Amino acid sequence: MEKENNKLSEVIEQWQKELPTRYQMASLFDAATLGNWQGLVRAWGKSQLGEDPRWERKQKVNISICGFGTLQYLQPYIVRASLADGFIPQINIGSYNQLFQELATQNQQIINDTVDLVWLFCDLENLLPPEKFLDYSALLSENGITQASKAIENLIHFLKDTRKNFNGLILINDFFPTLRSPFGIADSGREVSYSNFFSSVNNELQKFIRDLPYSGVFPISGLIGRYGSERAIDRRLQLLADCPFSEGFFFEISQELRPYLRGIKGTIRKVLVLDLDNTLWGGVVGEDGWNGINLGPDPLGKAFVEFQKAILGLYKRGTVLAINSKNNLEDIQEVFQKRDDMILKLEFFAAIRANWDDKAKNCYEISKEINVGLDSLVFWDDNPAERMLVHQAIEEIYVIDPPEDISGWATYLQNISLFDSLHLGREDMRRGEMYAENRQRKEAEVSSTDLNSYYHSLSLKVECSGGTEKTLPRIVSLLGRTNQFNLTTKRYTEQEINRFIKDTKWEVRCYSAEDCFGSYGLVGVGLITFGENTAFLDSFLLSCRAMGKGIEDSMLYDIAACVRKVGLHTLTASFLPTKKNVPIQSFLPDKGFMETRGDGSEIQYSIDLTDKKIENPSHIEIINF
Question: How far apart, in Å, do the first and last CA atoms of the chain sit?
């Protein structure tokens, strides 16, 4: 252990000289075992690396925790969880049992403009008078549910006041039973059983939170159910320090927080890259033939079928699928065409690499083909040598080390939170399908000898409309996810965008598209502010899967029309260069914008719309709403 700690200290010391990439840091802390992560966190804190001014703001995450009980025990776990995704954490712990006071006074240490997340810890015993829990017959009743609902509504009232001045995410834990029913086996015969009481109260909580913008319910009750209440609750620590949870469960809680942090910081993974032989099916198709591979009904074959079902579940909620296999394309096409027990279909995949090149190179080409960053990819392969190759060659790709027992693959994949989003709108759910449709477009483009004729054959339509409450979640999702064709990569919350929609000095523009292959959904956003003499293009972005077809030109055409409509003729914009938004770097100059100021970190542009005419591409039909 001492040798291991010395090694960790050497790593931290090296980081002080040269800051690590987010992926280097994440790799170290994510791989940390239960035995050594505490030493890592101590070494991190001692080094004061978190205070280093060289960190970029977008890599920092500021978390406030407030509520009831002793919450300081949670801090090191959240530090480790943040670092395991490459984020630099700042943790603010509220005063002991001062939740309502801190919300009422808007305590600036807990709630301020720099805080990304406020996380509330409270249970029903904190919200209801203590005597209510002395009479379970009265509590476990319809009247008891009504009283609990009113207590929750009172808490939500404070949160609504907080939301007026706070733009970060608000999380509140749901409520959970930690004891066996006080009525024993007779509980199931009661009108309101012990478990049904908590279910009803949590439904009320969900209902109230749905009406609170950019907020969510942290599913701690489900986590306790999976972990086991006997292991999760530490009665001794509860009596000694007013802290109900065990050390092991604190670790699980912090792990469950990680997808929320990735959602806040816009680092959600989008693409699952899959091997085929001994991954989607048992055996090697090149040797066993399409009819010789293993896919049910024996136990091993069933395991592969269940794994495919889990993959399909991800695809149905918007995860993009890609194939990276050392195989002949004709062999795998036979499997997909002739095996009725294949759950997945070839048309579900946005990119297919079936060749004998190394898989790191294939991953790189997949990211280029579907136009996403390498840090959007998750790689799954049964072969540890292939996994090591990809991991060592491309640090941005998340490489899964699946369980040795294939029967556990489906559950393991379902528990992976890398693809989790804070919001799942209609377009988000169809993302995998739309990327797969894009492969068909590209295949048609490759077969076309005349690019102009190909564009016209698409019958492309772009719908331009103002932002609404209905499109709000998708707008925020695009702002949080889009990195390549994005002028500024500014991130906004639902509350902020909703305010822009209602403000006459702002115009929120949304762009949806469709062609002969299908609908792209809502793929572009433009945010315009109107000054006295000039309009400013605050944000301009297009989903990477919609790039390269002229949709961005139609968007700018519509924005110019909006500016002229309010009687202005000068449109200004800024380009904030990042490592990822190179594809949009020359867009404004190419459209006639003139550079007015630039210092490397920001380049400002302007165009006189009376002098320069912005055209809509001839192959695109504009639909205005």
Answer: 65
* 468 and 606 housed in the same domain: yes
Q: What domain count does the chain have?
A: 3
DSSP-derived 3-state class of residue 552: helix
Return the percentage of the chain with pLDDT > 70, whole number: 97
pLDDT at 3 over 60: no
Q: Is 323 helix (H, G, I), strand (E, B) or coil?
A: strand
Q: By the 8 A CB rule, do 170 and 163 touch? A: yes
For the segment 489-514, the average pLDDT, to the nearest whole number, is 91
- Tell how strand 377-380 and strand 398-399 pair up: parallel
Its domain, for residue 131, covers 56-265
What confidence tens digit (pLDDT) does each residue in 510-525 have? 999 999 888 888 999 9
Look at residues 415, 439, 470 and tell me which one is the last residue of a structural domain: 415
Helix (H, G, I), strand (E, B) or coil at 372: coil
Tens-digit pLDDT profile for residues 194-244:
989 999 999 999 999 998 888 999 999 999 999 999 999 999 999 999 999
277 shares its domain with 260: no
Looking at residue 136, the DSSP 8-state letter turns out to be H
Which of 439, 492, 490, 498 has the alpha carbon at shortest distance from 470? 498
280 with 260, same domain: the answer is: no
C-alpha dist (Å) from residue 603 to 114, 299, 414, 519: 25, 60, 44, 34
Kindly list the distances between the CA atom of residue 294 and the CA atoms of 35, 113, 305, 355, in Å, as whole numbers in the listed order.
Answer: 39, 56, 9, 22
**417: Cβ–Cβ under 8 A, 6 or more apart, which residues?**
256, 258, 259, 262
Residues 6+ apart with CB under 8 A from 385: none
CA 251 to chain CA centroid, nearest Å: 21
CATH number at residue 143: 3.40.50.1110
